[in-house]
Amino acid sequence: MAVSEVRLVVAPREARLVLVRDNEVVEEELWRFERAMGRSEAAQVVKAVFDSTYDYINYAVNGDD
User: Fold this and answer.
1) Which residue, 36, 45, 44, is CA-closest to 17?
2) Which residues of 25-50 are buried (b: 16+ CB within 10 A; e: fewer)?
């Protein structure tokens, strides 16, 4: 069985998005910020990504209920 994983790391000066499949990095993207991102701003970004992903998976599993 193939296992895939998406990792999002948001740090004060950068964000990194990584796609891993069967323990091998398939894609990786790095963004560097011109200014440091605040703790609450980073938390909002991560929460928005989580919520979007949750909605997508929930729709894929349960449909339009």
Assistant:
1) 45
2) eeeeeeeeeeeebeeeebeeeeeeee
C-alpha 35/C-alpha 21 separation (Å) is 32
Best CA proximity match to 31, nearest among 52, 10, 5:
10
Alpha carbon distance 34, 12 (integer Å): 10
Q: Is the pLDDT of residue 65 over 70?
A: no
The pLDDT assigned to 47 comes to 97
Q: Tell me: the pLDDT tens digits for 13-59? A: 999 999 999 999 999 999 999 999 999 999 999 999 999 999 999 99
List residues bridging with 18 in a β-sheet. Answer: 7, 28
Tokens representing residue 42 in the block: 């980073």
